[in-house]
Structure formats: structure tokens, C-alpha cells
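Course assignment 3, question 2. Fill in each field.
Student: A.L.
Task: Predict the tertiary structure for the chain below.
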Amino acid sequence: MNASKQSKGVRRKAARAELKDTAYEIFIGILSLLSIVNIVLVYALADDEAMRIVLNVMNGLFSLIFLGDFIYRITTAASASTYFFRSFGWADLLASLPFPQLKILRVFRLVRVARLLRDVGARTVLRTLVSDRADSALMTLLLMGVFVLQFGSLAILAAEDGVEGANITSASDALWYTVVTISTVGYGDQYPVSEAGRLIGVLIIIVGVGIFGTFTGYLANAFLGSRSDDDSETDAAGAPEDDAQVAEGEESSPTARGVAGGATSGAVAAGMRAGGSDDLEGDDRDERVRELLGQSEAALAELRELLATRS
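Answer field:
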């Protein structure tokens, strides 16, 4: 039993070491699954050249993303040879090449992501996604953009196919219209004319506004967050000087009080001697004391002002 727990702990530790950012791993896993689905769709839509071109363009985009993922993994791996030979790095490299026969190797990438997430544990994955909301939101936005670009282009082609007066008739028309609509630019050179096409266009517009609005907020938060951190560091750097000044003020306060107290008692004593205190009696003595105390209070107030000016 203990050996089983130990083995599970070792596997989980190894998975965490190999696992990149959790949201990123899920992003790559879903893209791998979508790319495998696209292989099936290419054969299923073999008779429709425009849709097949859209799928091939998306597969080319996935190849670039997966090639970047391979470079990222092999340069950040603890052991490049271990990743390449024992963790299906060779499959990642071959699957990222633009050859249709090798795209099926993306199954290895999907299996590795699923294994890593399983070894880490669903609870840990969920907790990480919730705590790291910024990266999770960014990966979600990228996924939404990919899905809308692919399926929006396919849907608008299907809706406008054979419609009289349609101007979205090719793969390039569909991709251009989808990109322009998602980015909320809206040149108006390509537009749907059928009811179904307009409905799809409305959905693309709504999703595009959400994607770009959220992405703009993410960038603003990233830049403003960095600036706030810099300001906090500046304040922290200046804090010791302020603390030193406060400490100096606190140290000077007892001194000031001691000096003022000494000045007060000295002034009273000197004044009593100067006024011949031995010759004074009763009310005259009290009056003289009050007069000297008033003078000492004035001296103390002046001393405090000088100390405040110095600080």
C-alpha cells in the first residue's frame, strides 16, 4: 500500500515537472484534438474544394503552432534527449511538419497531455485554472478565435453556397470575411446575402466583440499591472528612508523633551536666583514662578518649531 502511494507520488511529481502552464497544456490538447477532427473532415468534404481549402489553411496554422510548441518544450525541458526520445518529442516534431501523412502523429501529443493532466489530478488542475485566471482567459480567447475562424468560415460557405447574388463563394472570401468580422473592422467588401448567412454573421460579430473586448482588457491589465508593480517597488525602495526619518523624529522627540524640560527647570531656577527668591514671600513668590514658567513655555514652543523646520 505504501509502495503504491509512493509510486503515485513519484508519478505526480514527475508529471508536474514535465507539465507546462496548465491552461497552455489544455489549449494544446484541444488544438491537437481539433487537428485530428480536421483530418477526418478533409476526407468527408473531399467533394467541396472551398471547404477543403479552409481546413487545409487551418491545418497549416496548427502546424505552425505545434512547431512552436515543440521548440518551446525542447528548449525548456530538464533533459532534451529524454523529452525527444522518451516523451514522444520526435512525434511532436514530425506531426508539426506540413505533410498530411504525419498529422496522425498528433495523437501522441493528445495522449501525453491527457496523461500529464491525469497524473497531476483533476482537483489540482481545476484549482490552478481558477487561481491563474489571466492565463486561463487568454487561452480561452485564443481557442474561441480558432474555433470561430474555422467553423465560421465553413458555416458561411455552406450558407451562401448557390444563393443568388452571393459574394462569398471561395475559401479566401470566407476566411477574409470571418477575420474582418471577428476583428470588428467590417470593410463591407464581403457580406452574406442569405438569411442563414446573416444569422451566422451576427453570431460571428457578437463573439468577435467579446473576444477583442476581453483581449483588450487583458492587455490593459497586463500593462497597468506591470506599472503598478514598478510603483510599489519604488515605494518600497523609498520606505527605508521614510522609516529612518520617522525613527529620527522619534529619537529626537525624547531629546527635544529633555532639552525643553532642562531649559524650563534651568530658566525657573535662574530666574528665582536672579529675582532673589529668598527675599520673596507668599504671593510674590507664586507670581514670579508663573512668570518664569510662561517664559519657559514660550522658549519650548520656539524650540519645537526649530526642530520641526529641521526635520
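Instructor remarks: The CA atoms of residues 162 and 169 lie 9 Å apart. The longest helix spans residues 195-274.
Grade: pending
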